[in-house]
Each structure stands twice: as C-alpha cells, then as structure tokens.
Amino acid sequence: MSSGPHFSAEAIRRGAIACLPLLPSTFIFGAVLGVLATQRGLGLGELLFMSLTVFAGSAQFVSVDLWRETIPALTIIVATLIINLRYVLIGASLRPVFRGRPLWVKICAMHMVADENWAMTMAQKETPIPGFLLGGGMFLGVVWGSGNTIGYLLAGGIPDPNVYALDFAFTAIFAALTIGMWKGREDLLPWVAAAIGAIIGHYLLPGTWSILIGAGAGVVVSALTWKGDNDTSAQPEIVTSSATGVSGDDYVPNPDDPRFSSRAGE
Amino acid sequence: MPDFTSFTPEAVLTILGMAVVTYGMRLGGLLMADRLPQTGRWAHVLERLPGAVLISVWVPSALSAGLIGIVGATATLLAMIMTRNLFAAMIAGMGLVAAGRYFFGA
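^ inputs. structure came back:
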C-alpha cells in the first residue's frame, strides 16, 4: 500500500474477514460478560453502551466484576486506566498505518482499536490503510455486542469457554501473529527482553502489569541495540504536501519512503 | 424484556469515564508517536514495539494456562513457522490445549 483512500469498502471488508477466526471466542466471552452483568445489576443497555464506548475486553470484565448497586466509579475508572495503559503503546505502534493521514482519520479510526484487530493489522505484509483496522474493529464490536446480548438474555447456561480451549484462541492467534511480525535479526534481542520481562512481571506483579513490564523491556533493549541508520537511503518519511498545494486530505506517497527502497521487505 | 432502556446517570458517567481514558490513551499514543522523529533511534524502537507488546500480551496468558498453555503456545509457534497459515497454527494450539484439558485435566 503506498497511497489510496483512508477507508475503502474493500479494506474494511478485508479487515473484518481477517478477524473471522476470532468470532467464536469473542462471541462466547462476550456472552460470559453478559451473564456477569446480570449478576452485577447492569442493564443490558448500559452493558452495550459500555461495549461500544470502551470496547476493551479485559477492562470490561474487571469493571463489570467491580460493579455494585452503589457504583465504585473512581475504582472502576482507575482500574480501566491501568489495564488499558498498553493502548498508549498500541496507538504509538500504529504510526505507519496513519502516516501522512489527516487528524480526522486518526480521530475516527482509533476508537475501535482492540488487541485483536491491531495485531491483525500490524502482522500484514504490506502496511494496510486505516480502513483495514476499522473493519476488524467494527466486526469485533458487532460480535462482542451480540455475545453480550445473548449472554444477558440467557443469564447463564453459556458453555465454559475453557473446555473447548476458546480462552486459548487469543493466546494462539497472538503467538502466531508474532511470527508474522518478524522483520529480521534486530528483532531478536528486543523480543527476548519482552518475553523475559513479561514472564518476570507475570510472576511478580498482579493483573496486566506484565504487559507493560515486557513491552518496557523490549523498548529499552531496542533503544540500546540501535546501531544507527546505516542505510543512507533512509530519508525522513515526512509527507510534504504544501509544496504542491495539495490539501491535507490527500495522501501523497513520498518517493523517499524506505518501503520503496531496496531494503523494503527486509 | 430486560431493562434495555434503563440508564442511571451514575452508570452512564462511570462508563463515559472509562471510555474517555481508554480512547484518550489510544489516540494519545498515536499522536505522541507522530511527534517522534521518523528516523534514528526512536523510529527503530517504534518498529520493534508491535512485536514487544504482542509478546508481552500472550506470554503471560500462556503461563496462566499452566503447562498445557506453554505446550500449546510452543505448538502454535512451530505450526506457524512451518505452515505460515494462521488458521492452522491456531487450530494446532487450541487442539492441543483442549485435548490436554480433556485427557489430563491440565
């Protein structure tokens, strides 16, 4: 992908199809959350409102679990903040997808970003347009909300996801996508550091802190192992559109983009 | 019919608070990265970031699933390296974990 629209119907459709393998697990876990909501006194409308506006599975599970007649609002919001801190890093890593795109595209497309459609987007061989990311998010949102509704209406009787290893689907997809993200030897040390950091964090710290410890270790090691931009063809990738008088809404591919150089695909 | 239309102000405000912090971090992360240089050390770090975050997401979940989780994750990785097929890799990992739980209660 070198240019093109921000959100094409085709990219949205491909993004949705890419997330298809996650349908059973997302639906069942959505239903489990629906059952939990009936036990904690959330209305179905409130739950769906949360699924649409927050759209973050693990934070929603913790929040609904904390929900009581008198809502511990501050506790819930702080817990959400901590569990979702990884989205700062996830958002940062999406920079190539939004390179040269106007602010409104970023504002529109960054809401429906879950771990799953983000991982699927980052693992594509060619950097997809924002529509791919959004298509996956919209698909997962519909499945997630449908699961919530079915679980809420049944108020129980949902099969245990663990029996069919549906809980493991997320782990397996993420592990497999990691292989697709391998760009070369320079990934090795940061990845090993991330794994070690995550393992240490898993055994020493509660909740999702292990994600931040692992990612932090990966960041530090990748910063330390940087050997300099030894390729002279790597020019700044800033898209200059003012010179030609093109409006900011038009993406102009930069001929100096390293993706077009001989190093592309390394 | 369940209380589809009942929204208490406390619930709506709590949910909006959750939504604002979550969306703020999603968009904020991207906008912060936009301000980082496009080349050099920071660009190199940003390129390593997706893999580092992803590994940090699934490694702890594999550990939480116990021995069978570690076996299942290893099988997923090997299947992906051999087949380069996401669905095959996913089925390999999930199949092993489901079988392991069924036969050994692991």
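Chain B has a mean pLDDT of 93. Chain B has two domains: 1-35, 50-104.
thumbs up if we can close this ticket
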